Amino acid sequence: HATCAFDAVGGALTGTLLNALPKKSCVFVYGALSETPCSGISPLGLIFEGKKVEGFWLTEWISKQGKLGIMCVAKKAQSLKSEVARVISLEEAPTALLEYSKNMTAGKIILAPSP
Asked: Scanning 17, 21, 32, 75, which has its CA 20 to 30 A from the CA of 54?
């Protein structure tokens, strides 16, 4: 089971994520795309289940890693990848969205800007 989640949205999503996680879990909030305060967080989960919500600022985290730490993270990041099923034009988007929703594990569909 996952014991941490990263939240770029904030708002009600923070509480939804925290409530879905098991005891002693943490949600790291690194954005505020919803432009609303984090909400839906149960005080009982914080007190009795050891759950946490923490802010995460990548710039600050990197500054504490040192050169060796940054090199290790960079090496691990190189192995991350996303499968791309195909690249589409804006005109193909409605059909491609339907196709993607039927088989999301087949890879990402990339929307290419018009030439």
From this structure: 75
